[in-house]
Amino acid sequence: MRGRHRSSYLGLLLLVSQLYQLGLENIPPITLAMLGLNAYLFLFPAAPLMKACVSVHQAYWSGEWRRLLLSPFHHADDMHLYFNMVSFVMKGIRLERRLGSVWFAYVLAVFSLLTGALYLALEAGLTQLTEDQSYSSACAVGFSGVIFALKVLSNHYHPGGVTYVMGFPVSNRYASWVELVLIHITAPGTSLIGHLAGILVGLLYTTGPLKKMMKMGAGELENFFLRYFDIPVKVPVGFGNSSKCNHDFDFSFSRSLEMLYAKEERLMCRTARYGAARFAAPPPYGFRLTDEELRARRLMRLDGFM
């Protein structure tokens, strides 16, 4: 959102109330830490709002690239913070539990920088196309661009469902686009380009090359920590090449994690080859097994593949 003057602390009180009802113990650590960072920088900003917002003029022409770091975590007023953080917490809980805390923190860091960078590129492109300098001077601030990117991820991992936008059910596939338009119509002061940049970053992750590049970067980070600090970095299981259902596995991460990935790869490949029922967890006590399930379990015990 573009800069506005702060009005009151009502938004903070509403945010505290929402968190109390939700329970801090129900919020995963990275989501909670990011929430705390945004609230802290609202109360004790690292820079005045007009020196934290990002625009083509300030970041590119004036060389103030630190605005890319500052702008996502500063908010125009307390209600801006409230709406952004409530939306973020709901998405963060689902995504952090699915992706794992370390990978989710990595996603947040990349999305925060990339959303700002793409915002600058879009604004610069519009300036060139329209010859209107107002696009280059539009200064944006707030976490909403990153939230739109996370919304794309959340909808990607929960396909086929619906999201209620202003009380109307909208397919998850189109929910981000519908919200983009409605927010711009109902709140003209918001940054349409900033929100669009977030959607595009989310799509680059779910359907484009960004996720692959991040995996490669995670491998280099893992090697760095092992080389200089002897500290393995925990990353999500299953990042090996699952399409290679043989023993020729290709790993981009360090050797310390290779055996873990290989074990996971072999399990996935054998599940695909012989059927999921054979490798499923035992049923609760008292369940009756069919003859086919009993035969599959006997064969599994005889195989001894793990």
Would you give an account of this structure?
- This protein is mostly helical.
- The protein has one domain: Up-down Bundle (Rhomboid-like fold), CATH 1.20.1540.10.
- The chain has helices at residues 10-22, 29-43, 49-52, 56-61, 67-70, 78-99, 101-130, 134-137, 144-157, 172-186, 192-206, 210-228, 258-274, 276-279, 291-303; strands at residues 162-165, 168-171.
- Strands 1-2 form a two-stranded antiparallel sheet.
- The N and C termini lie far apart (53 Å).
- The relative contact order is 0.09.
- Pfam families: Rhomboid.
- It is a multi-pass membrane protein.
CATH homologous superfamily, by name?
Answer: Rhomboid-like
Number of strands: 2
What's the rounded overall pLDDT mean? 78
Judging by the overall fold, what is the CATH architecture?
A: Up-down Bundle
Structural class: mainly alpha
Helix content: 55-70%
Q: Rg from C-alpha positions? A: 23 Å
Count of the separate structural domains: 1
Unreliable segments (pLDDT under 50, ≥5 consecutive)? 1-6, 235-265, 270-289
Widest β-sheet, arrangement of strands: 1-2
Give a quick summary of the entry.
The chain has 306 residues and is mostly helical.
Secondary structure layout:
Layout: H1 10-22, H2 29-43, H3 49-52, H4 56-61, H5 67-70, H6 78-99, H7 101-130, H8 134-137, H9 144-157, E1 162-165, E2 168-171, H10 172-186, H11 192-206, H12 210-228, H13 258-274, H14 276-279, H15 291-303
Antiparallel strand pairs: 1-2
Give the key terms:
single chain, 306 residues, mainly alpha, Rhomboid-like fold, two-stranded antiparallel ribbon, 3% strand, globular
